[in-house]
């Protein structure tokens, strides 16, 4: 019988190389973010949250390399809806999510009986308009502002925000929607340690006066971070 060790070792090395390439692609850093929404069925947040935590455990077992944030909307028209998001991706990394078919199978088994998928969009981080890294700090509160513009007004809107970028006081992250809804649309994230910190900085919430005529609709929501419904977060040390 011929020795098959060379072929076996070659197959192992090839599989290892492919796996390494996939993991490298998954972890490659970039400017893209994915932000999605889930709405608990019939307001049943208890069963939904337990189901979503089970699904996160699948991601842990699958050796997920992406960081996933989980927030509940505390104030806004979508109160009690859940937001899950991942930031800092290159286009290549978005091409390599962890085991998509098995992820979908576990989603259908655990999450969909208890929630409706209410939106999913891709965004590009805009560092020239922002103060921060493009990956929000994992603070207890976060202000989410969604701005929908008149068609064709993107350049004027971004120019106005760029002009005041140097005056930003706290972490302020702007993203332009690439796909997933009506365009042009932008979102701004302002992570803060507390509700009072957000309220005390209301003057920073205002957009430049010159963009008012460009805006069709602005929505401001306050989110609560859910550490147990997040994955891979680096939480700030408690004071």
CATH architecture: 2-Layer Sandwich
Q: In DSSP terms, counting alpha (H) and pi (I) runs of 4 or more, how many helices?
A: 6
Characterize the largest beta sheet: strand count, sense, and whether it forms a barrel. Answer: 8 strands, antiparallel, barrel
Give the averaged pLDDT, no decimals: 89
Query: Do you know the CATH topology?
Result: Alpha-Beta Plaits
Largest sheet: spatial strand order: 1-3-2-8-5-7-6-4
Bulk shape: globular
C-alpha end-to-end distance: 68 Å
* SSE pattern: HEHEEHHEEHEEHE
Tally of individual domains: 1
Q: Class in CATH?
A: Alpha Beta
Q: What multimeric state do the chains show? A: single chain
- Helix- and strand-based class? alpha+beta
Rg, alpha carbons: 21 Å
Low-confidence stretches: 11-27
Question: What's the count of strands?
Answer: 8
Helicity range: 25-40%
How much strand? 25-35%
Protein model, in words:
It is a single chain. The protein is of the alpha+beta class and 239 residues long. The chain has one domain (30-229): Alpha-Beta Plaits, CATH 3.30.70. Helices cover 30% and strands 31% of the residues. It contains 6 helices and 8 strands. The chain has helices at residues 5-27, 45-61, 91-94, 100-110, 154-163, 195-200, and strands at 29-40, 69-75, 82-89, 115-125, 141-149, 173-179, 185-192, 215-225. It has an 8-stranded antiparallel beta barrel with strand order 1-3-2-8-5-7-6-4. Helix 2 (45-61) packs antiparallel against helix 4 (100-110). The radius of gyration is 21 Å and the shape is globular. The protein starts with a helix and ends in a 14-residue tail after the last strand.
């Amino acid at each position: 019988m011929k020795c098959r060790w060379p072929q076996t070792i070659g197959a192992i090395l090839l599989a290892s190389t492919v796996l390494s390439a996939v993991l490298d692609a998954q972890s490659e850093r970039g400017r893209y973010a994915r932000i999605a929404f889930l709405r608990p069925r019939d307001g049943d947040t208890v069963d939904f949250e337990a189901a979503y935590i089970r699904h996160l455990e699948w991601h842990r077992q699958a050796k997920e390399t992406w960081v996933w944030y989980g927030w509940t909307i505390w104030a806004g028209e979508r109160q009690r809806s859940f937001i899950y998001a991942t930031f800092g991706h290159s286009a290549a990394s978005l091409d390599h999510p962890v085991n998509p078919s098995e992820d979908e199978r576990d989603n259908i088994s655990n999450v969909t009986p208890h929630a409706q998928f209410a939106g999913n969009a891709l965004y590009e981080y805009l560092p020239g308009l922002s103060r921060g890294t493009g990956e929000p700090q994992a603070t207890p509160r976060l202000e989410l502002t969604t701005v929908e513009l008149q068609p064709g007004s993107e350049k004027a809107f971004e120019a106005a925000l760029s002009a005041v970028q140097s005056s930003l006081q706290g972490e302020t992250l702007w993203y332009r929607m690439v796909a997933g809804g009506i365009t042009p649309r932008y979102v701004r994230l302002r992570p803060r340690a507390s509700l009072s910190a957000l309220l005390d900085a209301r003057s920073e919430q205002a957009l430049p006066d010159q963009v008012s005529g460009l805006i069709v609709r602005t929505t401001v929501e306050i989110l609560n971070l859910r550490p147990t419904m997040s994955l891979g977060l680096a939480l700030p040390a408690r004071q």
